[in-house]
Amino acid sequence: MQTNPIVEMKQIHKSFYSVNVLRGVDFDLFSGEIHALMGENGAGKSTLVKILTGIHKSNQGEIFYKGNQTEFSSPKDAEKNGMAVIHQELNIIPYLTVAENMFLGKELKATPFGILKTKEMNQRTKEYLNRLGIDMDPQKPAGELSVGQQQMIEIARAIAANTEVLIMDEPTAALTDREIETLFKVMDQLRQEGVAIIYISHRMEEIFRMCNRITVLRDGQSIGTKNTNETNFEEIVKMMVGRELGERFPDRTADIGDTYFSVENLSLEGVFNNISFDVKKGEILGVAGLMGAGRTEIMEAIFGARKKSSGTIVLDGKELSIKKPHHAIKAGIGFITEDRKDEGLVLGLTVRENLSIPNLKTLSNQTIMSDNKEKQFSKDMIEKLRIKTSSSEQEVKSLSGGNQQKVVFGKWLGINPKLLILDEPTRGVDVGAKKEIYSIMNEETKKGKSIIMVSSELPEILGMSDRIMVIHEGKVTAILDKADANQEKIMEAATGGINR
Ligand SMILES: Nc1ncnc2c1ncn2[C@@H]1O[C@H](COP(=O)(O)OP(=O)(O)OP(=O)(O)O)[C@@H](O)[C@H]1O
Ligand SMILES: [Mg+2]
Prior knowledge:
2 domains; binds magnesium ion; six-stranded mixed β-sheet; Rossmann fold; 20 strands; binds adenosine-5'-triphosphate; 24% strand; 34% helix
């Protein structure tokens, strides 16, 4: 590492209205290092990088870039000076093609005002994606891709530019193991080429594997910076939450009863085939598989958000005819989706309004809550899930990513479902809050509810599931008991190795 940092941020302060979000943050970054930025949801990580890249202005503090005091006036300005950011919120425009998204704002033109060089852009896009090990049609509308694939476009876009400082705000949240491995290879290569990388993630394993140093923020202040090889999980977690956290996964203590929910021969041509499984009362069924295996599609079909060509669904002894989500909700099924922006939340409404979305209430068999009850409920949820918000009246769109996810969770708990389908329930959620969510899953199953949990995080699948179903290319390739399951067996089934 050379002696002068490429980026140095000193005593950065930032407030939104009267809320002090950053209260004196110091951060430095060297060329050729991967530097992790960690901290609980709402600690200020995204805000800090938004200040660095000219999206927000700090109220106080200094930024040095290549030794000169600098303040980028806009993200474009930062980009021109060699910075690339992959933001936590995807910036993909669904109706544009993959290639158009790649070159958004920097389209190749034959003359300054002339025709776009579509062919060349398509070709170059293919090359960049190949570098990430992805074979994707550049002319496909981006909206038809999965969240994970869209994320890969963003990553390709960032590394395609002549980047000196690459900022990645939770890049792997939507990716599965194979894509993550490719991404890590590319990051390693960039580091060797001398690129400086800021890496934000809640995944401890990744941080310890990939990063040279770790800086921890807590409540808008920098707590400290450690060399990764001189620290450990416990120390970092303690710096983040300010206390010992104990075990990552709470013990499963629910009594598991008889079959409560079952799916028989569920099919959708070309997507999934003859899916059959059941979930017992009080049980958590984990669903593993690679990205694109069809896990989300199966869950959407159960919930009525997607058509199915055949199959029967039984809950609590009753065969259900689900054609639309409101049929599922009425029957007692809750669904926490993978994509909180699209389906989970109304961003312009407050935390309280989202937690008590009235149409959800009327759709379910719950009676509508009185105003007071609604206020109490949102207060309870904010406390229970430790949602970091200035009040229950804050708009959801100004919450940090992980806190938005907690609101989605709380919202569905409010309708008291018999079966809760969770699709990546802890994506982007910090270690402490993850544990809160696991505890709530435990509590819900103790009350006799059943849970299906789709997750790409194997530690979570292994830590929380009573049984594990593995999906490969739209088929069930294994159903494992907790006692027999391990990472190797799941990966083998997820890549099609085991036949049932
Ligand atoms: N535009 C805004 N208006 C008001 N408050 C905001 C705004 N942007 C961020 N905040 C608040 O600033 C705090 C820090 O948010 P930030 O997004 O930086 O957190 P984070 O560390 O990135 O969290 P996460 O891990 O959940 O992504 C949060 O409490 C958030 O509610
Ligand atoms: Mg963030």
